Structures are given as C-alpha cells and as structure tokens.
Amino acid sequence: MNRIANLKMSLLGGLIAVGAAITCTTAHAATEKLLVAGGCFWCVESDFESVSGVSGAVSGFAGGASANPTYKQVTKGGTGHYEAVEITFDNATVSRDQLLNLFFRSVDPTDAGGQFCDRGDSYRTAIFYANDAQKAAAEAAKADAEKALGQKIVTPILPAGPFYKADASHQDYYKGSKVILTRFGPKKQSSAYVAYRQACGRDDRVHQLWGSEAPFTKKYR
Mind telling me the catalytic residues? Predict the structure, then answer.
C-alpha cells in the first residue's frame, strides 16, 4: 500500500510540475516587445504606458552604430540613433497590430525631419522588427495608415539592432516629482513635461492629421 501511495504522490507531483511549466511557458509566450521611434521618447512612453495590456515602456536609443550612446551624444547627432521606446505588452490583452495602429496615429508619419518642435535625425519616426512576422505586421500597419491618412508615410521599417536604455533621468519622465528649472520657471517635473508637450505642438498636430482617430491627444489639448 505504501508503494502505491508513493507512486500516486510521485505521479501527482509530476503532473503539477508539468502544469506549472506549461503555465509559465504560456505566460512567457504572451509577453512581447515592440520597438518604435516617435520623436521625444518621453511622449511615446507616456502614451503607451496608458494602454491596457502594456506592462511597461522603456526610453532608449536604437538604429545607430554607436554602442552605449548617451542622450547628449544622440541629440547632438552623428550616432545614427533614434530616440526609441521598447514597449512590453501582453498579446492576450492587446495585439501588436493594435499597438502599431495606435503608434501611427500618435505621431506625424509624414515628417521626415523630426517630430513637431524636435528636429533632427534622432527625432524621426521608425518601427524596428526582429523577425519576418514583425516586419510584415509593420508593413501592413503602414499601408493601412497611409490609406487612412491619404498621404505618403515616410516612417521607415528597419531591422532591429541593439537597444540601449537611456539613463534613469529619462525613464518615466512624465511622472517625475522633482522640481526643475525650465524656461517656464521652476516646475515639478511632471508639470514641466506637460508644458513642454503643449508648447511643442505635438497633440495639436496629431489631432490635425488624424482627428478622432488620434488616441492620446485629449489629455494634453
């Protein structure tokens, strides 16, 4: 009887272990990353962290040849990097296609020289892909956006290279509580972010282009 009981316990333990492994694998498979450049990475991060199913967005740099670039180096020019955001999402809640649709409607994809008041190569738009399926999804979203907008979209779809995380001062900038000196006077960082975004004209331009299809403009206009 003891042998039978031990055998049952062993089998039960094995089934529990298998079930746990399947659960972990499924949960892991449901988590994906999307890497995009949409001008100021503070704004892209702020927009997409408000989307249900997005667990986080990290500001950084992608698309260039320089390893471990600093913010100052990238904005000065010459590194080839874009200000980029790595978005982590649960594809059981929100799909890559949905996020790509939101991305195009949160930027000015007709502008090849930067975004809004931020000019230069580091502020251009782009989508980065890691495999053929991601490339196809980005191309389909671009074609759909071009048809909806009725204008030529210049946002390139590029192979993903290394992504370099920006320093801590650029992460969750829109949430910051530190008081900083700005051209608008001393402001809490989160208030300074709103003042910058409004002065830059981001949401006015996106609303002008996309109208009611623009997903993030109401908060800041």
Answer: 40
